[in-house]
Amino acid sequence: xxxxxxxxxxxxxYATSAGMMxxxxxxxxxxxxxxxxxxxxxxxxQRKDYWARYGTTLRGLYIERHIDPQAFLRFVHDVRVDTYLxxxxxxxxxxxxxxxxxxxxxxxxxDYAREVLRVLGVERHFETIxxxxxxxYQSKPTQCAYDKVAAALPVPPNxxxxxxxxxxxxxxxxxxxxxTAWLTSTADRYGDxxxxxxxxxxxxxxxxxxxx
Length: 212
Ligand SMILES: [Mg+2]
What we know:
Layout: E1 4-7, H1 20-34, H2 40-54, H3 57-65, H4 69-76, H5 89-96, E2 101-105, H6 110-120, E3 128-130, H7 143-152, E4 160-164, H8 170-175, E5 179-183, E6 200-202, H9 208-211
Parallel strand pairs: 1-2, 1-4, 2-3, 4-5, 5-6
Helix pairs in contact: 2-3
Bound molecules: magnesium ion (MG).
């Protein structure tokens, strides 16, 4: 019996085709080049390496280059959300008819996540945002991020559904006993090709109601 749902934010609550993550990603590379002195030709490979070893670019830079994570997060999320997204009445209606309690579990900062929810018009449906500050920069798919979230949840993991467009982010959740749903509408930049043990595969976020 699923009574609680953890939603990823970016490229999950809205489609990749919105293009916003493209700008966020470009700003990460820009930060590495202009603030940290990486040679432009090396940035893609370096980020791919961080992604594989640490989960995110932020975590790689934090561990290996000792950057100020807040300065990095402020820079990369300084995007005009409302130029990419708009109110999503269909999403709002789906969330409204789902009786489960809902939260966001994201590697992005909480204030940015709140702005995305506000622009989508769905903020009222989410009781909590478990963002990068809450998980203390231990980005998904690091196990400690899930342990922190699970400890804060009002229900045991087996009453929880987690939805994410990054397949590997679902692996720790599944191991802890959560039900997992992989959103396939996005192809991951770094070859997250969907080899996952997720319980469900969703073509769009609007299919969540169907599996409950
Ligand atoms: Mg995502």
